[in-house]
UniProtKB/TrEMBL annotation:
Protein name from the UniProt record: Thiamine-binding protein
Residues annotated as domain Thiamine-binding protein: 6-92
Transmembrane feature ranges: none
Domain of life: Bacteria
Pfam families per record: Thiamine_BP
Organism this protein belongs to: Paenibacillus profundus
Family statement drawn from the similarity comment of this UniProt entry: Belongs to the UPF0045 family.
């Protein structure tokens, strides 16, 4: 079972104030390519897995923003670390119809 939930909001600074949505789309592609379980929300994306693996995904996301031409990147991250195991489903099951 995964030991962590990590939510990330990535905020790239673009050179000329371009729309950041293509950058965010690329960041989500990095998550998809990693193979970790994730859920996209309107303001952040939550990933489920081993903390060290999820931190590597965040590193790759930031690198991808720079590769696209971002001058810098702010990553707002929330981490729930639970060595005994935790899943997104456990925290949200009571809110599903």
């Amino acid at each position: 079972m995964a030991n962590s939930l990590v939510s990330i909001q990535i905020i790239p600074k673009t050179k000329n104030g371009e729309n950041v949505i293509p950058y965010v789309d690329r960041a989500i592609e990095v998550i998809q390519a990693s193979g970790v379980k994730y859920q996209v929300g309107p303001l952040e994306t939550t990933m489920e897995g081993e903390l060290s693996e999820l931190m590597q995904v965040i590193e790759r996301m930031n690198e991808a923003m720079i590769e696209l031409g971002s001058l810098n990147v702010i990553s707002q991250v929330k981490i729930l670390y639970m060595p005994s195991g935790i899943t997104m489903d456990e925290l949200t099951v009571k809110y599903r119809p």
